[in-house]
Amino acid sequence: MKSSSNYHDTREGWLRAATKELRPYFEGSGYPLPENIRFAIGFPSTGRKGNRVGECWHASTSADGHYEIFIRADQSEPGVVLGVLVHELVHIVVPIDAKHGKRYRDAALKIGLTGKMVHAMPGMLLQKQLDELAESLGPLPHARLNIEVGADNRGPADRPKSQRNRYLKAECAGQDCGYTVRVVAKWVKSKGPPHCPEHGAMLVELPDNEEEETAQEDEELRQAG
Q: Are 26 and 33 in contact (CB under 8 A)?
């Protein structure tokens, strides 16, 4: 597996060149690769979570009949990226419903993957060949994306949303009524507590640091508005 080019200015170009060099190896193992494959380093459908570092979408799921391979953006070591690529290429050469079952396992072992099939990666001999291929391809035009810090360095996009206002519990003072609502402390202080439809004014326990709480709520409401 020797590459005819040692410079690629896009990640897809690098992965396409790697696949071109891998084609004879796959064909010699009895699993020829189709031509209609696209590649990307980005995010699988599970996003940043879980252990899925690669994903293959079958040609039948594409509007123009292409297989799509995605390698998660926090993978950047060339030899490892090629290992993920091979894992996903095996998905291409088996039926769409093979998943990581027997048909996938048969092909994966023939190609040179080892380990639990859902996370199967190259064995020692195949990895040596992939490391040589990575060297011949030249630099992978990609650096590890620190996806855990998010696009704005303030945490990932799927982080829990912070609560903009602190809602207090208002309870009816009537015996065994059980009527409760939630209310922002600001309005309790400025307008008074909410009222139970049957028993009137409700009980609200206000925080001790009222001035600080009110200032914080005023700012949050101003930003929200």
A: yes
* Residue 158 forms part of a structural domain: no
Shared domain check, 191 and 111 = no
The parent domain of residue 217 ranges over: 167-224
Residues 87 and 133 in one domain: yes
Within-domain flag for 156: no
Distance CA 65, CA 37 (A): 9
> Could you tell me if 15 and 122 lie in one domain?
yes
Contact 198, 179 (CB under 8 A): yes
**65: its two tokens:** 């009949």
Residues 12-27 pLDDT 10s: 999 999 999 999 999 9
Distance between CA 71 and CA 93 in Å, rounded?
Answer: 18
The one-letter amino acid code at 46 reads T
Written as six digits, the tokens of 55 are 């994903």
Nearest to 54 by CA among 107, 97, 90: 90
Same domain, residue pair 126 and 176: no
Domain count, the chain: 2
Side chain identity at residue 163, one-letter code: Q
Which of 72, 91, 86 is CA-nearest to residue 125?
86
Sheet with 167-172, edge to edge strand ranges: 180-184, 167-172, 200-204, 195-196
41-65: pLDDT as tens digits: 998 998 877 789 999 999 999 999 9
> Both 129 and 29 in a single domain?
yes
